[in-house]
Amino acid sequence: MKVVIALGSNIGESAEILESAVNRLNNIITVTHLSSFIETEPVGGPEQPNYLNAVLIGESELQPLELLHAMLAIETELGRVREVRWGPRTLDLDLIVAGESVMKTPELELPHPRAHERAFVLEPWLEIDPDANIPGKGSVYSLLSELHLAE
After folding, report:
1. Could you read off the pLDDT tens digit of each residue along the chain, which spans 151 residues?
2. Taking the CA atoms of the chain, what radius of gyration do you get in angstroms?
3. Which superfamily, per CATH, for 2-114?
């Protein structure tokens, strides 16, 4: 199943942390595309440093919840501590889409409930997949265009 994962970091050596996360993800899925790393301003939460963000596309044989649990383990391995909601972090991994899965559980909502509102997800995703779509939301290109018009 095709999966899209957003990566972010704003504590520590963010580029090295993101590269390490991609390498670890490649042990559990087959990473087929990786965007450039882009610097973005934080959205919501307390005042904090800018983020380094990226998006990757891969193929996974894991079910979405299994993949989520593996991603959470990678965050922990790379120093993620959950203290402040939307606060600074060494690593944030978000499962954006998993095939055409649409689900809402206490642990996981697919597609990601705010991905369509986040330029820091849409821009790098569009870079590696110009025809990308978010199930139920539309084309990444159109969603990003709407965000830029709203600025």
Report:
1. 999 999 999 989 999 999 999 999 999 999 999 999 999 988 776 778 899 999 999 999 999 999 999 999 999 999 866 665 656 788 999 999 999 999 999 999 999 999 999 999 999 999 999 999 999 999 999 999 998 887 6
2. 14
3. 7,8-Dihydro-6-hydroxymethylpterin-pyrophosphokinase HPPK (3.30.70.560)
Given the residues 89, 118, 129, 131, the one annotated as active site: 89
Among residues 24, 80, 118, 129, which one is catalytic?
A: 80
Is 131 one of the catalytic residues? no
Marked catalytic residue, from 24, 92, 118, 129: 92
* DSSP character at residue 108: -
Catalytic residue among 24, 85, 94, 131: 94
Active-site annotation holds for 80 = yes
| Neighbouring residues of 39: CB distance < 8 A, sequence distance ≥ 6 | 50, 51, 52, 53
